[in-house]
Amino acid sequence: MSNHHHEPLARLTQVDVRFGRNHVIQNISMELHRGCITTLIGPNGAGKTTLVRVVLGLIRPSRGDVWREPGLRIGYMPQKLHIDQTFPLSVERFLRTARNDDPAALEQALTDVGASRLLSQSIHGLSGGEMQRVLLARALLQQPNLLVLDEPVQGVDINGQIELYKLISRIRDQRGCGVLMISHDLHLVMSSTDHVICMNRHVCCSGHPEQVSTDPSFIEMFGVPGAENLALYSHHHNHRHNAHGDVIKPASNNVKVD
Amino acid sequence: MDDFLLYALIGGLGVAIIAGPLGSFVVWRRMAYFGDTLAHSALLGVALGFLLQINLNLAVVASCVLLALLLVALQRQRLVATDTLLGIMAHSTLSLGLVAIALLEDVRVDLLAYLFGDLLAISPRDLYWIFGGGALVLVLLWRLWDGLLAITINEELAQVEGVPVARLRLTLMLLIAVVIAAAMKIVGILLITSLLIIPAASARKLSRTPEQMALLAALLGCLAVAGGLAASWYWDTPAGPSVVVTALVEFLVLYSLPLRRLGISPG
């Protein structure tokens, strides 16, 4: 797979997106590569999801160019999937609407994400982590060259998050596809990402995770003191978030490494 | 059995069969108010049909489709929320229809028949319309089923996966317009949505797959039509409302049954 590295799958050049007079993203250039995991981080309202939607072709930029490799197959995992309770749907039936009728591929995809036992379950009874795995399986069913994951660990507890990131790395290793994902915090995603783009409407800084975590603009945005803490996957958050993203009280289990 | 009752029964069953699967989509996609709005615009279609002297069914389908397209266009502006917009359109088109019909001088229109349905109004020609339109709807549903399910799950996901989302959404609206034109004489303009959503909602209780729900909704709709027409025949109650009341009874019975204990749990 290493010989496929640096083969570009998609390229954005000086992309702007405006809604009315409001600049949602401004002058963003980036390249996505085969076998490479690119992570977008930034605060709420930074335009991360908008940028992802540009890559997916769901919105056309107001300015700039978007190039995709001809024949590029994208597997997309949306941030949240609300399926109305009135819609009776098993995991299997859900996956079978994904334009790939091959039952063997379906089982393979579910096995790859470690969710084969969910096959006949109702989609409405899944936990947050299970639902994320099923969505990932659906993305894999597209036989993607590029996986696009919008906050893949949303609503998953901390252990589940670490596992999911490991899973994403493993999928990248096995399939050699490129990955673009959005994440809220860098420290968990560090070990499983090759390239980080830190953005707040524009690109603040980008590069290897270690590089980015010491960049002044990154520290200013996230207030993380120093790279050595990041390397140990713990840093000084003054708050935590619950499954809904709300801030909860400072917890005593905040690990300090001084 | 008199001919007109037979026609009503056959026509009603035809409508119930297509209303089952389409009504399921209306329920899944939360389009009940949308269906209501389209149905209300049917009266305007009737008035236009008289005015232009064209086939009324065709006029109704055309006005429903035009309204659906107008709604899609108007939803792009963001000053008025969709449900407000639907409310405005539903009542305005109904009122416009009533006003237009009142202004037609040489035509006497039995308004109640259009608003609440009329058994006696079903002719063999209507049956051709119902079954011709119905067959078209079923064939299209059959062909587009997986795509329609995909856009019901999530439109953006479907679009990324290469499903022609805009076209399918438009087709679904068109199909609903055809059903409204077909159902108009059976249950009437004001009650059409109930024939779409009540059997589908009842079917949900017993279904584990979308296909089961669509088929069961068709079956429950047929039962409601048969029961409603029987009640209308024996007790001389209005046909359309009797069909809706029968559908309601089915719904209430199904939802008060402790189905989980019978080993049937909805998926």
Written account of the structure:
Chain A: InterPro entries: AAA+_ATPase, ABC_transporter-like_ATP-bd, ABC_transporter-like_CS, Metal_Ion_Import_ABC, P-loop_NTPase. Chain A: This is Zinc import ATP-binding protein ZnuC. Chain A: Keywords: ATP-binding, Cell inner membrane, Cell membrane, Ion transport, Membrane, Nucleotide-binding, Translocase, Transport, Zinc, Zinc transport. The complex is a heterodimer of chains A (258) and B (267). With 258 residues, chain A is of the alpha/beta class. Helix content of chain A is 30%, strand content 25%. In chain A, helix 5 links the parallel strand 6 (146-149) and strand 7. In chain A, helix 3 packs across helix 4. Chain A is globular. Chain B has 267 residues and is mainly α. Chain B has a single domain, classed as Orthogonal Bundle (ABC transporter involved in vitamin B12 uptake, BtuC), CATH 1.10.3470. In chain B, 79% of the residues lie in helices and 0% in strands. Chain B is built from 11 helices and no strands. Chain B has helices spanning 3-28, 32-52, 56-75, 82-103, 111-116, 124-153, 155-160, 165-187, 192-204, 210-235, 239-256. The mean pLDDT of chain B is 88. The A-B interface holds A 53, 56-58, 74, 76, 78, 81, 83-84, 86-90, 93-94, 96-99, 122, 124, 138, 142, 148 and B 27-30, 146, 149-150, 152-154, 156-157, 159-163, 201, 204, 207-210, 212-213, 266-267.
